[in-house]
Amino acid sequence: MPFPPYSYRDRNLYVEDVDLESIARSAGTPVYVYSATAIRERFRLYNDAFGDVPHEVFYAVKANSNLSVLRLLAAEGAGFDIVSGGELYRVLRAGGDPAKVVFSGVGKTRDEVEYALTSGIHSFNCESEAELALIDSIAARLGVTARIAMRVNPHVDAQTHPYISTGLRDHKFGIDIAAVEDVYARAAGFTHLVAEGVSCHIGSQLLDTAPLKDALDAVLALTGRLRAKGVPIRHLDLGGGLGVPYKPDQREPDIAAHIRAVCARCAGHDLKLMMEPGRSIVGPAGALLTRVLYRKPAESKEFVVVDAAMNDLIRPALYQAFHEIVPLRAHMPGTFTADVVGPVCETGDFFARDREMANVLPGDFLALCTAGAYGFVLASNYNSRPRPAEVLVEGASWKFIRTRETLEDLVRGE
Ligand SMILES: *Cc1c(COP(=O)(O)O)cnc(C)c1O
Question: What is the sign, positive or negative, of the torsion defined by CA atoms of 329, 401, 385, 162?
């Protein structure tokens, strides 16, 4: 079954007031579809839950960086969490406020730091002492002061897929919580830096909030120790958002309740709270529509070959991710068990294995659910496949927010 905001009306799959098959037919497939209303509502879920606690919600651009999505969130007053100069460029092009941008990431380059400083971003989440030295030297040359937070690695197991878990000792991210106080002490020696924050991001797709609470306790204690040593910590950046349901038996964690618990835990600490949700704002709002090309029976199983592939949505191949797959017209009787695969020449090019699914025929359309985050942004041209179009739905209307790539696009720059 699809997840909200996707649902059947008389066995036709809709998002908002649009019949998705009408998009598939007129936009062609594969095509990404996003609900503008759902994106807005999900951002407000975060932003409103803080109530009158001083806070800022920075949408994590890497989850879905389409300019129209960024524009929509900028209009809601969102800040933006970026991990590259390219993402900063997108945010500025979309009308985002540079004063509400935080720059995360373990490998910021000289050019990116200079771009961020001249754009006047809010702060850097720093991951090494070498990075501090670089930012300080560039800030000195430009005659500005850079606000920084150290990204702390609290050794908390996020209980998520190893590729999106980031808070354990052996991960490349952040600075060991046991070593970071010395780093803040040395940061005080840099004349063009002001260390006013602590940041912590332990991983993505967390359905259980217990690890986040453990991490919060660890960074709150750290904040106290830092302040006692005279480091003027003013903000706490709690990293990404919560996980979203991909499987039928997964329940969405209560975002508002989690944030209220965080606010209660931080009450009296005089901290501005920051958060950088990506997946949970755009993930459930999106779906990838694809058409069935063939049904191919084999010795021991059957394959459903569709026109989308791992180059369009790599999450199953990269993270063994599960996406619910449902027909746009749920009229066919019965189910069968199949592997859903794309045309790319890789055995890893599958969307589902041994999945019981609707008894679809060639020409039928399917939706891969919960595909709004880490979907299009990870698309490639592998096998010289043009990247898909993206469509934004609002109410009863929809529009292209990115046209399908052409064959000419494929060779541009070669
Ligand atoms: C990826 C990332 C996020 C967003 O995580 P979601 O799980 O998509 O909310 C936030 N902050 C940092 C530093 C990240 O790397």
Answer: negative
